[in-house]
Design brief:
Rossmann fold, single chain
Length: 400
């Protein structure tokens, strides 16, 4: 190889090559030729690019420059030297392996360089072909391992932050009546997701009434999950502000149309107010599955007739009220369609509300109540489906 070839600025990495691309920052011509010779003798498939000054090296390492697998750095250059220069190389090439070249009397500087972030250091007078090629390979693999560990740490941190965020976005029921029992279950359908498009909430107002709500945003992505959280918070705010019934749904419909990113997005919703006497409740449904009412005599679904359209579909939707008489001992279960849209066997038949009523009756005969009842219903639905339910799922059970 000619000297001119080694210092040719056009010798830059070529995309798609299998060979290793190495940048040598070295002003001494003899040392540069020796490194090239050692790489050749060590049978390392590599292309060496030489920068004769730190200013020239910046052009290779800066934004938009060619990518390198490894950088060999002489810490004594005319225009820069020492650990400050090394730190700048590491800043410019944060994902590249860096090997430091030192003189025989600068071994302590090499140790300090490793402490500053270099993968290893080599004493020039001791370098031989096998040592150089092995050091380059080890430095690259060590850097890859460091990068993998860093990415894993970032992923763990992100997962931890997402879990805290999800816990913060899920509702905390505000319920003062110690005679009422409140149970929920929530699972997003998307794999590894923390929140889905389903949402729910429970809040007791100063007059003693308990307000329940459950909803389902159409779609299954993070945008739908975000919209579900906003609708839940809007619902709670409106309840606390004194809005009730159809007027509340009209306002929520308006909130949805302002917050959604496309006109195709709609939301089904069911809300129930259990009155202070705990013997009566008022229900409003906006295209949502019918709740189940548990009593000492069994379980039944609420009537189909009292139902309006999902919010976000029409500008003039109407939502009639359904009055519910509650027995001495009762339970109201609100749920999203993720629970009832699983298949029954290998055919196309879905579980649907009637099938859920049958499963609930069987669970009652087995003595299931509260959280055990919810978990049993989900398990039975999954057994019929032949596997886990894939849609977002939310269940809210209030018993008095």
């Amino acid at each position: 190889m000619r000297t001119a070839d080694l210092f040719d600025p056009s010798r830059v990495p070529v995309a798609g090559r299998d060979a290793l691309d190495i940048l040598l920052i070295e002003d001494d011509l003899g040392d540069a030729l020796l490194v090239q010779e050692f790489l050749d003798e060590g049978e390392l498939d590599a292309q060496l690019v030489v920068a004769r000054s730190f200013a020239e090296a910046r052009g290779f390492l800066g934004p938009g420059g060619p990518g390198f697998h490894c950088v060999l750095v002489d810490l004594s250059l005319p225009d820069a030297n020492g650990l400050d220069m090394l730190r700048e190389v590491l800043r410019l090439a944060p994902h590249t392996a860096v090997l430091v070249l030192t003189g025989l009397n600068d071994a302590q500087v090499g140790v300090a360089a490793v402490g500053a972030g270099a993968q290893d250091y080599l004493v020039k007078q001791e370098v031989e072909p096998p040592l150089l090629t092995r050091a380059v390979r080890y430095a690259i693999e060590r850097k890859r391992a460091d990068e993998s560990e860093r990415e894993l740490g970032e992923a763990r941190l992100l997962s931890s932050e997402n879990n805290r965020l999800a816990r913060g976005l899920l509702p905390v029921p505000q319920l003062d009546d110690v005679l009422l029992r409140h149970h929920t279950r929530y699972s997003p359908g998307r794999r590894r997701a923390l929140l889905g498009g389903d949402f729910y909430d429970t809040i007791q107002t100063p007059d003693g009434a308990v307000h329940l709500m459950i909803g389902d945003v159409s779609g299954h992505g993070p945008d739908e999950a975000s919209l579900g959280v906003r609708l839940r918070m809007a619902w709670r705010t409106l309840v606390l502000a004194g809005q009730r019934g159809e007027a509340l749904l009209v306002t929520l419909d308006r909130v949805l149309t302002l917050e959604r990113w496309t006109e195709e997005i709609f939301t089904t919703l069911c809300m129930v107010t259990v009155h202070p006497d705990r013997r009566h409740a008022t229900m409003y449904r906006a295209g949502h599955p019918r709740p189940l009412l548990f009593s000492g005599s069994g379980v039944r679904a609420m009537p189909e007739e009292a139902c309006g359209p999902a919010i976000g579909l029409f500008t003039d939707g109407e939502w009639p009220a359904a009055e519910i008489e509650l027995p001495d001992s009762w339970g109201l279960m609100l749920y999203t369609d993720g629970l009832i849209e699983g298949r029954v066997g290998h055919g196309s038949r879905r579980l649907d509300t009637e099938g859920l009523v049958d499963l609930a009756a069987q669970a009652l005969r087995r003595g299931m109540t509260g959280q055990d009842l919810i978990d049993a219903l989900v398990a039975d639905a999954e057994d019929l489906n032949g596997g886990v339910l894939t849609d977002d799922l939310a269940i809210l059970l209030l018993a008095g």
